[in-house]
# Entry
Amino acid sequence: MMVSTKGRYALQVMLYLADNNDGGYVPLKDIAEREEISQKYLESIMTVLSKAGMVDALHGKGGGYRLNRDPDEYTVASVLRVAEGNLAPVSCVESEGASCEKSDSCRTLPIWLKLNEMINDYFEGITVGEIARSTAAAVK
# Structure
């Protein structure tokens, strides 16, 4: 599994919003400048996060984005799944029930299933809030 730029940036944005989680909206321009992400690319990421219900968006003067839950309610897995679609290391374990025609005789399928489980368990065990707290001193 390789996390794309979109997934990494989505996680960075969620951390930035967690750091600025005072109830107000953070302008897209501020996020783009601080995180050094193209504003146009960031717009597409924010649209995905907003449509998935992970952030609230407010357009116009005083608008921007904000988290709509406590940062500890967002797991790294949930953010990456929204941005990436899934966390599967190989295509044959992308979604439950979907497998190739060779799955009954595939000798390597068990290792891919175990790796998929490990990846999901690992990322489900880390929250945006935990990362924000652990890296807060380094950011300031």
